[in-house]
Each structure stands twice: as structure tokens, then as C-alpha cells.
Design goal:
Blueprint (H helix, E strand, L loop, with lengths): L45 E7 L2 H9 L4 E9 L8 H5 L6 E8 L6 H10 L8 E2 L2 E2 L5 E5 L5 H17 L8 E4 L3 E3 L7 H4 L16
Parallel strand pairs: 6-7
Antiparallel strand pairs: 1-3, 1-6, 2-3, 2-8, 4-5
């Protein structure tokens, strides 16, 4: 039965209940570079979660950047514990499709990483990216530490002025700290490396960050 796409995030009371443990296992190593994607984050490595629409194309944008240790895709910023892809797509978990980037700030600063984020999608579209419509495709930055909040907000304000100068509208990206994140099913991890001709709906605004 066809259901319209939800365009607002459900409350915790409305969301699907989820489960205490995941229903699937995730590979331990990155398909492209062999580094860890599961378990504890390595010492000296920073973390950020980014929502840019469909996570397949978003992940590919980051795994080859100098200073990136590994990338992984998953679900975050919602309510349901250990959701499945189908549950997230229903709109009833509150989660966003995210790419988790583990990176070395000695080689790649947060500001440099966020410049790639802003330039690689359209952050003015609300609950969608192009033809991908729904709350799981919203733009967002999800930080692991509150100390980075001001840096992320300054980055957003800078790009907002760049967009205004190009005749574009308001950024709708949310910026949150310490949201729950659950790794997606194994077949989603590094999907476009395994399926080079697979779907990628990622598209920027043709507005540079600098």
C-alpha cells in the first residue's frame, strides 16, 4: 500500500520502538581502505556524522579525502533503537541517513571537512535532496563534542552568506551534538565502491565555500 512521505520528524512517543540489539552484523573493515569501521574509534581520531541525502553518494565524497581514517553509513538523530533500513524509510524512526567520518584533525581540519559537506549537496531543501524526499534525507551536522558547536555554526553562517550572494535561500541544516547512531546493514557500507554504477542522487549548489 502506498503511503505519502512523512515531512516531519515523529516524536519519541510516536516513533517505532526498535530493539535492544541489532538484527544484523556489519563488516569490521572498510571495503576500500581496510581500516576499521566497527567497534571503538581509534585513539587520536575525531568523529563527525553528516546528513546529505542518500548516504551512498555522501560516503563516497569522504573516504578518499587525505586525513580520513574511515567512513561508514548508518542511521542517527532519531528515536528508534537499532532500526532497519526499511524502518528508517518508513519515516517512523526519526532517523536521518548519515555518513560517519573518522578523521585525523592534524591532516584534515573540521573546517576543511565541512567545506566539502556544504559544497557537495543542497542544504536549503528541508526534508529532501533532489528526488529523494523524506525526513531521512535532511541535511545535518552531528558533532561528537559540544566544543565544536561554535565552529560548525560559523561554517554554516559563512556558507549561508555565499548562498545569499548567489541568490539562494536559507540553509535548513540542523546542527546537533551527541546524537544516537547505528551502523547500517553491511550491503550499504561503501556501496558505490562495490557497485560503481549504483544510484547516487548527490548534487551540490555550484557555490564554492571559499
Amino acid at each position: 500500500m502506498w503511503r505519502p512521505k512523512l515531512m516531519s520528524i515523529p516524536t519519541a512517543d510516536q516513533a517505532l520502538p526498535g530493539r535492544a540489539e541489532p538484527l544484523y552484523q556489519v563488516p569490521q573493515q572498510h571495503y576500500v581502505n581496510g581500516n576499521l569501521i566497527a567497534g571503538e574509534r581509534p585513539a587520536g581520531v575525531s568523529e563527525i556524522l553528516l546528513g546529505m541525502g542518500c548516504f551512498w553518494g555522501a560516503e563516497r565524497k569522504f573516504w578518499s579525502l587525505p586525513g580520513v581514517y574511515s567512513t561508514a553509513v548508518g542511521y542517527g538523530a532519531g528515536h528508534t533503537q537499532h532500526p532497519t533500513y526499511e524502518e528508517v524509510c518508513s519515516g517512523m524512526t526519526g532517523h536521518n541517513e548519515l555518513v560517519r567520518v573518522w578523521f585525523d584533525e592534524q591532516q584534515l581540519t573540521l573546517e576543511q571537512l565541512l567545506a566539502v559537506f556544504w559544497e557537495s549537496h543542497d542544504p536549503t531543501q528541508g526534508m529532501r535532496q533532489g528526488n529523494d524526499i523524506g525526513t531521512q534525507y535532511r541535511s545535518g551536522i552531528y558533532l561528537s563534542q559540544a566544543a565544536d558547536l561554535a565552529r560548525a555554526e560559523a561554517s554554516r553562517e559563512h556558507y549561508q552568506q555565499r548562498l545569499y550572494a548567489s541568490g539562494m535561500g536559507d540553509i535548513t541544516s540542523e546542527i546537533l551534538v551527541d546524537v544516537p547512531f547505528y551502523l547500517a546493514e553491511g550491503y550499504h557500507q561503501q556501496y558505490l565502491a562495490k557497485n560503481p554504477n549504483g544510484y547516487c542522487g548527490l548534487g551540490g549548489c555550484n557555490v564554492s565555500f571559499d
